[in-house]
Amino acid sequence: MDIRAFRERVNLLIYNSKTLVLGIVSTLHMLVSILSIGALIYYYGFPLTLEEKHEAFGWLQYSFTFYILRFIIKIIFEFDVPKFLKENRFEGIVLGLLALEGIFYNITGSFIIEPIFTSIGFTSFGDFSMIFVQIFIFILVLTNIIKQKKFKPWTKIHPGWLFTISIGSLTVIGAGLLLLPEMSKGGVSVIDAFFTSMSAVSVTGLTTFDISELLTMKGQIVLMFLMKLGGLNTIAFGALMLVVAKFGVGIKYHEVIEDFMNEDTIMNANSMLAKIIIWATSIEIIGSILLYLGMGNKGVFADEGMRFFHAVFHGISGFNNAGLSSLSGGMMHPDVLHNTFVHTVVLILFFLGGFGMIYVFDLFEISRLRERMRHPWKKIDFGTQVSLYFTIGLLLLGAIVFFIFEYNNTLTHKSFGADVISAFYMSMTTRNAGFNVVDVANLSMPVIIIFLFLMFVGASSGSAGGGIRTSTFAVIWASVLSTIRGKKNTELFKRTIDPEVVTKAYAIMMFFVVGNIVGPFALSITEAEAIELGKFDLLDLLFEHVSAASTVGLSTGITSQLSGAGKTILIIAMFIGRVGTLTLAYLISKRVISRNYKYPTGHTMIG
């Protein structure tokens, strides 16, 4: 009897029990996953004795064993094993590595990758590798849930609600983790935990305390993952939504999804999601390597392990435009303040993260570059043109104004070349990132005003940045020029802009303007006493709120001095800025029963 015949006989014998066994395994899978995550939180979040750590670690080992056995059981019940392995190759690879790690750990007492990192000074990598393994397992849990179509009812929910819920959930989970005893040195207040978590998830960068001083490395790792998930959630949400929905989202919701994705990419959601994740992670890895090489080996970077950690933290924070730093004082830390190479790398990460992944693909994907070389008449997409030209224009505007007015102010102790890089750096960071290399509180008034404008405009659509977005500003700019020139249609780069797009652009700007009037108004009430005492003025509050609402993260230094109510206002501003004013407008607006009507024409004087 050959193997194929033997397998068929076995499958026939166990077929009747397949539903029952796999049902039990599936139930146990969810239970074990929940308990494993709980054990992980217990293991890393609380001060434990050696015995308690051993017990928690033992449970994690048992959970790994269960995941491997579960995969084997599924193979046993499959008729077409090669097909099953092909469809579940990601899970198979992860579990194979997991099995090797388990065998290696039980033989040597350490993980396979641990000696490599120990050799460069990262002596505690063994603990952190457990976190990475658990994250892989968590991804597998989500993958299996999606495959089982348990998310199907969620596809009927408005995409805006899904995005809002995901941002809110990540923030709550992040705040809960930051409140754990082992995440900080001396504890974090509830309001500060929520503020910091929202700042990381919304990739803003405002903080109420010095991250490097108050948070332990575990707490900083939590922030790192919140930044990664928050940024990825923003730039890949449209593709993720369509993958989960299996194209089950109604046509009425497509215009909302198009706010997260380019319309042309909707039918390629599966490949687009994978491409976004791969490209984003690759850029972060390359950026982290360059930062590691550029940071040197002096000061806080003398320890190779800490140098590696700081490089990864800033690589993720830079690309996701988060503006959070594991260094005291951020980019103004003495060991990086005059490091132009590090500034340049971070500047490039800012640009790529704030440019929009769809546009990055159009500019830098090899196949598109070759196509444009073969056919010189082919140009980059219209959306890419808008994002690229207006990004460069705003970058130049900010850099020139900053250089002129700060040359004899905050740039006095730098060389000319360093001044130029700092000018471009501050212009870029003002639009989306929040990493400053000069003291914002000492900036001249013209620069403060132009920075308010740049923060208001923000980054490009489909990016990790905030603001009204460059595309919105471009459409409004084109509309104004067309009106001035007496043109009937709004035109931009020899293209006619749809009137609905123009209306949407003005709506976004109006919501943003109103939000940045209401927010500072509320702050002027909650911080009235501090204003009277001269701690800060109304311009400081306006700058702080615009920075929060645009998810930029620059501050004149008043964040930690705000009252609890003031911090709450900024949390709301960061939340709305991340979710998007137009998305919230879609959610709270009343649905019209019909659009097939028109009121009589009205006329009023304008201007």
Description:
The chain has helices at 3-45, 50-76, 81-87, 89-108, 114-119, 125-147, 159-178, 190-201, 211-214, 217-245, 254-257, 269-294, 304-319, 340-355, 357-364, 366-374, 382-406, 416-432, 445-457, 470-484, 499-526, 528-532, 538-549, 564-579, 581-588; strands at 490-492, 495-497. By secondary structure, it is mostly helical. Among the domains are: 1-150, no CATH class; 380-588, no CATH class. The chain has a two-stranded antiparallel ribbon. A hairpin with a 2-residue loop joins strand 1 and strand 2. Helix 17 (382-406) crosses helix 18 (416-432), helix 20 (470-484) packs across helix 21 (499-526) and helix 23 (538-549) packs parallel to helix 24. The longest helix has 43 residues, at 3-45. The radius of gyration is 26 Å and the shape is globular. The N and C termini lie far apart (91 Å). Mean pLDDT is 80; it is low at 245-254.
Tell me the distance between the termini: 91 Å
Strand content: under 5%
Please provide the count of β strands: 2
Strand order of the largest sheet: 1-2
The ordered string of helix (H) and strand (E) elements is HHHHHHHHHHHHHHHHHHHHEEHHHHH
Compact overview of the structure:
By secondary structure, the chain is mostly helical. It is built from 25 helices and two strands.
